[in-house]
Amino acid sequence: MADAPDMGDLSMSDSLHDFTSVFGGVLSAPWIKGGAACVVAGCEALGLPLDIVYALAFLFVADFALGIWLAVSTKTFSLRKLARGLAKIPVYTVVLIIAWVCQYVINAVLGQSVAVPVWACSYLTMHEALSILTKCEALDLPVPGLLKRVIARVNHAAETHVDKVLDVVDPKEKKRGK
Fold first, then answer.
1. Which of 117, 129, 131, 141 would be a feasible disulfide site paired with 46, CB 3.0-4.6 Å?
2. DSSP one-letter code for 2
3. Span 38-59, pLDDT tens digits
C-alpha cells in the first residue's frame, strides 16, 4: 500500500497536533486530516475553545454508539434512525454558525463581546450528556440516583413546556366548547 501523500501542515493550532498524535493511526487518511483541520479552523473562526469542541465530539460519538446499541438491543434499529443520528452533525454546525452570526451582530451593534458560540456549544454538550444518561438508563446500565432524578425532572419540564407551547386540546372538545 502506498504511503499517504504529504498534506503539508494542516494544523491550525497546537491542539490539532496533539489530537493527531494521539489518534495518528486512526487519522492517517488525508481526507480525515483535512476534515479535522477544517473543524479546527472553523472553531478558531467561531472563537470556540477546542476542548469544548472535543468534548462535544466525544459525547456525540458516545451518544451515537449508545443509540445504535439501544436500537439493536430493542430490535428497533433502522436506517432512518441511523440517518437521524448522523443528521446532528450538519444541524449542530448550523446552530454554531447562527450563534457566531448572533455574536457578530451583537458585537457590531452593541459593541459588546458576547461568547454566544461558546454558550451554544456548551448547551449542545450538556444536551448530549443528558441524552447519554437517558440511553444508559434505558439500557439498564448503572446511573446514579441523583442523575436519574435530574433526567426525570428535565424530561418532565420539557414535556410540560411542549404541551403548553402546542396547547394540546382535543379538536372534538374545542367544537363542544369544553
1. 117
2. P
3. 777 877 877 778 888 888 888 8
